[in-house]
Design the sequence.
């Protein structure tokens, strides 16, 4: 099993354990929430999915950082659950199959997106949400003294579990899925094309505010 | 204009030298089959796509002699080269190399996909020796001309003094006399080519000997 997935499962279990322990030891009532908000700073462990048919066939992803600012977009009992926001992320990868990608090194990804979503409390400390993001993704690699650039449109779906033992600080986990519609023109060989790009982005991080 | 005012321009000019402009959001695909002169597939042959001396993509043939790889593409049409069976400017293994330069027939710029089947010739090594076998002093001026193991599809690229057809041809020469009456030379060319040996003894008539390379290892002794 992929090491990143193993790490993710372990940290989910750790988070749930922490939540259960916290519920037993803390009994102070939490005031009813009037809105949702937070700055999410996460460590991503990306891996390509459906890679043999898509852009990431010859890439091995290392890690990434994700920054998302989310807040209640509307007022009212229902409106406060509707999230809005924006964010950006960075990822690093290696070209492990030059025959599949071309001769370049050190591809780095920059993505920026706007978000909408829905959030709800599960209990006093746990909040669940789902975020849908749309934005632009930009790959940059190094090749022969020049840069190689691949661009595309990025769609992200990120279910998220947030644990907030303190008012302004918490932890979260998010097994996000990202689909990138790349602009890269290449002949389609053996069913593979450079336009389709799927990523699994398990993310662990902290929340502020 | 003061000299210092153009220094930044010169700096930028030198930075731009040797660079290539890689096309964003683009890959090309190259594939084909590499066989030897008898039609058998040749495995583990590198196929390198270059532009202006920079490698944009490469692949190797499998056991069926087939290669296929994606490559970057650049805007430098006049300097395109596809090199088969060469790595780091050296010919590999027991086969000749092929260098395809940009022309109408092989242009990759118009298409993102190209299929090229290539035939490589087997190498042949000639062990050539010159021996003085008489008691009479004689001066021997000699010249060896042979085809090197590079083959070009285009005759436009000339890298040596002598260029015959589309083959890269080398020429070596020397003089033997009483002080150095003997000489051993090893030459690598490829099968079905000829090595042309030209000589003069004591400034006399020029004579020519043609040495056919009929197998992978050929030996030839010239005595005078």
Sequence:
């Amino acid at each position: 099993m992929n090491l990143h997935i193993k790490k993710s499962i372990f940290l989910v279990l750790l988070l749930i354990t922490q939540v259960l322990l916290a519920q037993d030891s803390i009994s102070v009532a939490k005031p009813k929430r009037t809105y949702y908000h937070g700055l999410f700073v996460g460590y991503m462990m990306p891996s390509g999915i459906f890679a043999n048919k898509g852009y990431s066939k010859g890439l091995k992803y290392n890690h990434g950082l994700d920054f998302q600012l989310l807040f209640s977009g509307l007022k009212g009992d229902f409106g406060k659950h509707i999230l809005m926001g924006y964010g950006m992320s960075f990822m690093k990868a290696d070209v492990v199959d030059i025959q599949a990608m071309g001769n370049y090194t050190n591809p780095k990804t920059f993505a920026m997106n706007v978000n909408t979503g829905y959030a709800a409390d599960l209990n006093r400390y746990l909040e669940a949400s789902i975020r849908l993001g749309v934005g632009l993704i930009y790959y940059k690699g190094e090749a022969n003294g020049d840069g190689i650039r691949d661009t595309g449109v990025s769609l992200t779906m990120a279910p998220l579990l947030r644990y907030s033992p303190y008012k302004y600080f918490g932890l979260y986990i998010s097994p996000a899925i990202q689909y990138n519609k790349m602009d890269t023109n290449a002949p389609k060989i053996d069913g593979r094309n450079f336009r389709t790009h799927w990523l699994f982005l398990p993310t662990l991080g902290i929340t502020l505010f | 204009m003061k000299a210092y005012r153009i220094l930044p321009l010169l700096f930028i000019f030198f930075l731009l030298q040797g660079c290539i402009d890689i096309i964003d959001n683009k890959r090309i695909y190259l594939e084909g089959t590499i066989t030897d002169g008898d039609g058998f597939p040749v495995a583990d042959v590198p196929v390198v796509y270059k532009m202006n001396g920079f490698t944009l993509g490469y692949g190797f043939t499998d056991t069926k002699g087939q290669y296929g790889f994606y490559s970057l593409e650049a805007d430098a049409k006049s300097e395109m080269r596809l090199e088969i069976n060469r790595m780091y400017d050296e010919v590999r293994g027991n086969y000749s190399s092929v260098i395809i330069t940009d022309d109408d027939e092989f242009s990759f710029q118009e298409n993102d996909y190209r299929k090229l089947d290539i035939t490589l010739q087997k190498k042949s090594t000639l062990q050539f020796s010159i021996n003085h076998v008489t008691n009479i002093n004689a001066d021997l001026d000699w010249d060896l001309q042979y085809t090197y193991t590079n083959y070009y599809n285009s005759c436009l690229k000339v890298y040596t003094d002598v260029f015959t057809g589309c083959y890269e041809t080398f020429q070596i020469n020397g003089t033997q006399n009483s002080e150095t009456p003997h000489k051993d030379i090893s030459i690598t060319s490829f099968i079905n080519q000829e090595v042309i040996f030209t000589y003069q003894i004591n400034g006399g008539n020029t004579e020519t000997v043609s040495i056919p390379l009929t197998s992978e290892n050929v030996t030839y002794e010239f005595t005078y």
Remarks:
- The interface with chain B takes residues 98-104, 143-151, 182-187, 189, 194 of chain A (CB under 8 Å).
- The beta strands of chain A are 37-44, 47-49, 59-72, 82-95, 105-121, 126-143, 146-163, 169-182, 196-208.
- The radius of gyration of chain A is 19 Å.
- Residues 122 and 132 of chain A are 20 Å apart (CA to CA).
